[in-house]
């Protein structure tokens, strides 16, 4: 990212092309140039960065801010959330990001994640038990979606009878329906009311769960160091939203990739110890986030010879970076023997995913249990008839019909 002469701005790209066939679309853009002008996720102009080294550097470059206050006037709109849900790590830079991440890390410990291994396994087995007599099902609805929501609720300490339909709320936020804009507002209101009740209950009756621990950290920290009430609620929302949404799609996409590569699925069944490294390659091959969270340069920054003005929206394409042959040879081939370390599916730099160990744990257990239980698992529709979510933000299936 050096200061060179600014070339002419690249032509505007129709994002519909990226929805129809994202990897082919991103590959064409990546080979045409490192930076392109597109209509972003909110319909406004954005700069799309496509090559691995540029994306990786930008993820860790402090000049690329996550704070929406650094967006130029009249620029990025994004999803409108109230302060009680918006004051989270995905909208923060240091020093606030450093303070909040340090405090939540005191509650979200490796020990707490490790203690979830058996509950994850029990939940996976129970879901597979319910599936077994059916012979065919939608794997998203029956397995990939209920598993992460059960785990996140276990982590946060949400009683089973209090677990509302989180999937409909997150769908309304991630893929808004233009014909029914009130759904998004209703989902935001429902989430806000739910977390307000939940925090009040945990304060009155603390338990051995992450939310109680976060409340204790917030209430016991030095006054100048502690979380605000909005930050506490926003963190709970982020853990639920990101921990659920991304893991559903990671499990679903990984399952599709394995079913389309039966020899590699058979190799995993024969040697379950390979599941850990396999999850890394599956996250690279078809991860749940085609784009990193948007960024705003705090000064003019040159990327791949293109100078992006301060305040304009920058989208870093993880999907394009992960299929960049300059970094991953033969990138369009799933290779569970590949060394996929260095993939960016869980971020890079100070914004590396706080819940990465949990996402890996869930996906490894989910895939291992599924492959072990159903050796004849296969798609119940042709692969080209699978329906993907119409979203630039997420890469995930609307449904995954399978038979076994």
List keywords for this structure.
disordered N terminus; alpha+beta; Cytochrome p450; 404 residues
Account of the protein in words:
GO terms for molecular function: heme binding; iron ion binding; monooxygenase activity; oxidoreductase activity, acting on paired donors, with incorporation or reduction of molecular oxygen. Keywords: Heme, Iron, Metal-binding, Monooxygenase, Oxidoreductase. This is Cytochrome P450. Belongs to the cytochrome P450 family. InterPro entries: Cyt_P450 (IPR001128), Cyt_P450_B (IPR002397), Cyt_P450_sf (IPR036396). The chain has 404 residues and is an alpha+beta fold. The protein has a single domain, classed as Cytochrome P450 (Cytochrome p450, Orthogonal Bundle). Helix content is 49%, strand content 8%. The chain has 17 helices and 11 strands. It has helices at residues 15-20, 22-32, 52-60, 83-86, 96-107, 110-114, 117-131, 139-144, 146-156, 166-174, 182-204, 210-220, 229-259, 262-270, 275-285, 318-322, 356-373; strands spanning 12-13, 35-39, 45-49, 64-65, 136-138, 296-297, 301-303, 306-308, 314-316, 378-379, 401-403. The strands form 4 sheets. It has a 4-stranded mixed beta sheet, covered by helices on one side. Helix 15 (275-285) packs across helix 17 (356-373). It is globular. The termini are far apart. Residues 1-8 have low confidence and may be disordered.
């Amino acid at each position: 990212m050096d200061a060179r002469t600014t070339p002419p701005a690249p032509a505007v790209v129709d994002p519909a092309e990226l929805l129809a066939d994202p990897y082919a679309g991103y590959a064409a853009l990546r080979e045409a140039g490192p930076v392109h002008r597109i209509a972003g996720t909110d319909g406004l102009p954005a700069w799309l960065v496509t090559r691995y080294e540029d994306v990786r550097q930008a993820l860790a470059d402090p000049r690329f801010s996550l704070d929406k206050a650094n967006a130029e006037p009249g620029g990025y709109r994004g999803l409108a959330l109230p302060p009680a849900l918006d004051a989270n790590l995905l909208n923060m830079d240091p020093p606030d990001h450093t303070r909040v991440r340090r405090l939540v890390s005191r509650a979200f410990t490796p020990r707490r994640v490790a203690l979830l291994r058996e509950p994850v396994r029990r939940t996976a087995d129970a879901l597979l038990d319910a599936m077994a007599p059916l012979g065919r099902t939608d794997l998203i609805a029956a397995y990939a979606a209920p598993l992460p929501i059960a785990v996140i609720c276990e982590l946060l300490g949400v009683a089973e009878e209090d677990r509302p339909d989180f999937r409909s709320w997150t769908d309304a936020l991630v893929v808004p329906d233009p014909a029914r804009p009130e759904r998004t507002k209703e989902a935001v209101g429902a989430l806000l009311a739910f977390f307000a009740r939940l925090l009040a209950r945990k304060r009155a009756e603390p338990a051995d769960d992450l939310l109680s621990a976060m409340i204790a950290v917030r209430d016991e920290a030095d006054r100048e160091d502690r979380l605000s009430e909005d930050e506490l609620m926003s963190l709970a929302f982020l853990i639920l939203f990101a921990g659920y949404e991304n893991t559903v799609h990671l499990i679903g996409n990984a399952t599709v990739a394995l079913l389309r590569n039966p020899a590699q699925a058979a190799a995993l069944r024969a040697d379950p110890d390979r599941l850990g490294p396999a999850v890394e390659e599956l996250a690279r091959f078809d991860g749940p986030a085609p784009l990193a969270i948007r960024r705003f340069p705090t000064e003019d920054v040159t990327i791949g010879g293109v100078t992006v003005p301060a305040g304009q929206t920058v989208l870093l394409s993880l999907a394009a970076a992960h299929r960049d042959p300059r970094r991953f040879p033969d990138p369009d081939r799933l290779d569970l023997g590949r060394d996929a370390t260095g993939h960016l599916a869980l971020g890079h730099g100070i914004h590396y995913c706080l819940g990465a160990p949990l996402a890996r744990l869930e996906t490894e257990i989910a895939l291992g249990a599924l492959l072990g239980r159903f050796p004849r698992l296969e798609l119940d529709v042709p692969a080209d008839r699978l329906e993907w979510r119409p979203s630039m933000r997420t890469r995930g299936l609307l449904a995954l019909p399978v038979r076994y």
